[in-house]
C-alpha cells in the first residue's frame, strides 16, 4: 500500500528543536464538523526520520496534571505550528521533566 504524501504539508511546519516551547493548532473532527484545538507545551523528544518523524509535547494542565501528546510532524491535521520560545538544553530527550512538578517542570533556559 503506497502512502499518499503531499509536499505542501511541509510548508506549515516551522523548524524547532527539543526544549522549544511550541503551540500546535490541531484539527479535531467531531462528527461532520471540524474545529481547531491549540496545544501549547515543551517539546521533550523527537523520534524517527523522514515521513514517520514524530515529536512529543508536554504541558502542565488544569490542577497541575501533566499532559503529553505525540504528534506526527507531517500530519495533515496540524494546521499551524509556531515556536514561542527557544530552549537551551543539553539532552536529546527531556524525560527527566516527568519527575519534576510545578514551576520546575517548565523551567528551561532560553537560547539566543
Shape: globular
Encode the helix/strand succession as letters.
EEEEE
Q: What is the average of the pLDDT values?
A: 88
- Helix-and-strand structural type: mainly beta
Number of helices: 0
Helicity, as a percent range? under 10%
User: Quick one: how many beta strands?
Assistant: 5
Largest sheet: 5 strands, antiparallel
Order of strands side by side in the largest beta sheet?
4-3-2-1-5
Low-confidence stretches: none
CA-to-CA gap between the ends?
44 Å
What is the CA-based Rg, rounded?
A: 15 Å
Fraction in beta strands:
35-45%
Please outline what is shown here:
This protein has 112 residues and is an all-beta fold.
Summarize the SSE layout with pairings.
Layout: E1 21-30, E2 33-47, E3 54-60, E4 66-72, E5 78-85
Antiparallel strand pairs: 1-2, 1-5, 2-3, 3-4
3D structure, described in words:
By secondary structure, the protein is mostly beta strands. 0% of the residues lie in helices and 42% in strands. It has strands spanning 21-30, 33-47, 54-60, 66-72, 78-85. The protein is globular. The mean pLDDT is 88.
Structural features:
single chain, globular, 42% strand, 5-stranded antiparallel β-sheet, 0% helix, 112 residues, mainly beta
Amino acid at each position: 500500500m503506497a502512502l499518499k504524501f503531499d509536499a505542501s504539508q511541509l510548508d506549515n511546519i516551522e523548524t524547532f528543536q527539543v526544549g522549544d516551547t511550541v503551540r500546535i493548532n490541531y484539527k479535531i473532527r467531531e462528527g461532520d464538523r471540524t474545529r481547531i484545538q491549540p496545544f501549547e507545551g515543551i517539546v521533550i523528544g523527537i523520534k524517527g526520520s523522514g515521513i514517520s518523524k514524530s515529536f512529543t509535547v508536554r504541558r502542565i494542565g488544569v490542577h497541575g496534571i501533566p499532559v503529553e501528546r505525540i504528534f506526527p510532524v507531517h500530519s495533515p491535521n496540524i494546521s499551524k505550528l509556531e515556536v514561542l520560545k527557544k530552549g537551551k538544553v543539553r539532552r536529546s530527550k527531556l524525560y527527566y521533566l516527568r519527575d519534576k512538578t510545578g514551576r520546575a517542570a517548565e523551567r528551561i533556559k532560553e537560547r539566543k
